[in-house]
Amino acid sequence: MLDLIAEFRGLIVVHQKIPGSEVGRHSHDEHEFFLPLQGEISVTYEGGTASAGPGRMLYVPPNLDHSFTSSSQGSGERVIWLVDTKIWKKHVEGEFLPCAFAANSLAKELIFYLLIHQQTQGAPYFIAALIESLGESLASAHLSRKRIFSEHLAGRVTDARVTRALELIDGGFASLKLSDIASKSGLSLRNFNRLFLQETGLTPKDFLILKRVEKAKTLLRETRMTVTDIALEVGYNSLSKFIATFKRIEGILPSDFRAKKE
């Protein structure tokens, strides 16, 4: 059973309650999110399979050939929302493969608020907040799958220029810009981004973010530096940006991370 719950500008929300089902290969134009309420759902595509049950969400990007299955456990009940690609691009940078991630509580609250207050004049603002929140969850899931650091990359990297870039990042990542690292490695920024991704499986930006967060975790564990000083030490001029990045990757605030380690 497929019921249309609500349709907003750039956002469609539907409700499914199917004991068990399988949908053959297909694709769609929108960014699609599943919130399972009962049962498990799985999406299979050329690169692999992503599955989610209650407590998690599942994402499928637009224009990706995939198949869909749901378990017969429970009622197979879920809420699905589809986001138009044009409105998505206004709020989220980057592209993401299908993935499951911990249910985003803010996204759930925004969805249900919109369902209850379908005539609210503030719908565009709530939709924008919803999309931005989901984009952050996807970026976090993307980084957590790619936690590869220089000590693990040493045996994989074959290009001397990328090896040089890794050494530069290890030696002074807090004060270096990507354009500086590219230049010192003998590459244009465009070729540096392409080659680094090819050699490591990470973009230089993602690698740098992970290195900064790992360094911050070390400082939080081993020193009594303030969170503000740690943010500056690892290369952030904005405390709020550092805190938001740390929470996005680790799932908790820097202060809470320190408290857990004490």
Let me know the average pLDDT. 83
What share of residues is helical?
40-55%
For the termini, the CA-CA separation is: 51 Å
Count every helix, treating DSSP H or I runs of 4 or more residues as helices.
Answer: 11
User: What is the element string, with H for helices and E for strands?
Assistant: EEEEEEEEEHEHHHHHHHHHH
Calculate Rg over CA atoms: 21 Å
Largest sheet strand order: 1-2-9-4-7-10
Poorly predicted ranges (pLDDT <50, ≥5 residues)?
A: none
Note down, in words, how this protein is organized.
The protein has 2 domains: 2-145, Jelly Rolls (Sandwich); 150-261, Homeodomain-like (Arc Repressor Mutant, subunit A, Orthogonal Bundle), CATH 1.10.10.60. By secondary structure, it is an alpha+beta fold. The model has no long low-confidence stretch (mean pLDDT 83). The strands form 2 sheets. Strands 1-2-9-4-7-10 form a 6-stranded antiparallel sheet. The protein has a 4-stranded antiparallel sheet with strand order 3-8-5-6, with no helix packed on it. β5 (41-45) and β6 form a beta hairpin. The chain has helices at 85-91, 105-116, 123-145, 150-153, 160-172, 178-184, 189-200, 204-222, 227-233, 239-250, 254-261; strands at 2-8, 11-17, 21-26, 31-36, 41-45, 48-52, 56-60, 66-70, 77-83, 99-102. The longest helix is centred in the middle third of the chain and has 23 residues, at 123-145. α2 runs antiparallel to α3, α6 packs across α7 and α8 crosses α11. It is globular and about 55 Å long.
Layout of secondary structure:
Layout: E1 2-8, E2 11-17, E3 21-26, E4 31-36, E5 41-45, E6 48-52, E7 56-60, E8 66-70, E9 77-83, H1 85-91, E10 99-102, H2 105-116, H3 123-145, H4 150-153, H5 160-172, H6 178-184, H7 189-200, H8 204-222, H9 227-233, H10 239-250, H11 254-261
Antiparallel strand pairs: 1-2, 2-9, 3-8, 4-7, 4-9, 5-6, 5-8, 7-10
Helix pairs in contact: 2-3, 6-7, 8-11
